[in-house]
Amino acid sequence: MKTILTLIFVLFIGMAAQAQDAAKEVKVDTVELTEKVSEVKENSVARLYKFKNSKIKKELSFDTKANKAKLA
C-alpha cells in the first residue's frame, strides 16, 4: 500500500511540474547605437635635413664593441 501511494504521489508531482507554463515569451527592447566618426587634423612638426636619408645613415652608422679597433 505504501509503494502504491508513493508511486501515485511521484506521478502527481511529475504531472504538476509539467503542467506549469514556464516558457513565457519575453520581448526584448532593441537599442540602436550610432557611432559618430569625427576626423581631427593634427599638425605635426617634420624635421628637415640638409641631405637625403641623413636619419637613416645616422642610424646605420652605429658602432659596436666588435667594430672597434683592437690594440695589440
Description:
The protein is 35% helix and 0% strand. The chain is built from two helices and no strands. The model has no long low-confidence stretch (mean pLDDT 80). It has one domain (1-60). It is elongated, with a radius of gyration of 41 Å. It is mainly alpha-helical.
Sequence-ordered SSE layout with sheet pairings:
Layout: H1 2-19, H2 54-60
Keywords: Signal
Signal peptide: 1-19
Largest sheet: none
Distance between the termini: 112 Å
Order of helices and strands: HH
Strand content: under 5%
Total helices: the number is 2
Helical/strand content category: mainly alpha
**Range of helix content:** 25-40%
Mean pLDDT level: 80
Shape: elongated
What's the Cα radius of gyration? Answer: 41 Å
Signal peptide: 1-19
Keywords: Signal
Give the gist of this structure.
The chain is mainly α and 72 residues long.
Distinctive features:
mainly alpha, signal, elongated, 72 residues
